[in-house]
Amino acid sequence: MDRGQQSSPLPLQNYDKSNDKMSKSDHFRSLRQKAKKRGSRPACILFDSWYSSLDNLKAIGDIGCIWLTRLKMNSLLNPDGCGNVQIKELNIDADGLIVHLKGSGFIKVFKTVSKNRGLEYWATNDLKMSQTS
Residue 31: helix, strand or coil by DSSP? Predict the structure, then answer.
């Protein structure tokens, strides 16, 4: 199977904020480290907006992986060097939009609309990515 076609989900861990000594981001990075020890070398890591903190984005980028995640509608991005604006205020066409994310660098964002899920914003550190690749 072509590496681009494979998927390898990480194991699930329950997270109970009231009982857990580790944060959800600590768990996220721990799962990634466990996968790395098992020999997992993903071309891209896909995850939900719940894990899209700047620390997690940096941790994935630091190990040389491409990431793809959803962003919340109030995520702040800098499209033109003039300051941050909420992602929902950006004019994002079908090819996506390259913007600056403070603390991370340049990323590419996409806007999708579906009947079942409604409006969603996606982001990646792969500036060449398109909605069809």
Answer: helix
| Residue for token pair 């199977």 | 1
pLDDT at residue 108, as a whole number: 97
101 occurs within a structural domain:
yes
Query: Residue 58 is part of which domain span?
Result: 22-124
Residues 6+ apart with CB under 8 A from 121: 70, 71, 72, 73, 75, 87, 88, 92, 109, 110, 111, 112
Place of tokens 């991370």: 104
Q: Does residue 61 fall inside a structural domain?
A: yes
Number of domains comprising the chain: 1
pLDDT digits (tens, 9 = 90+) for 26-39: 777 777 777 777 77
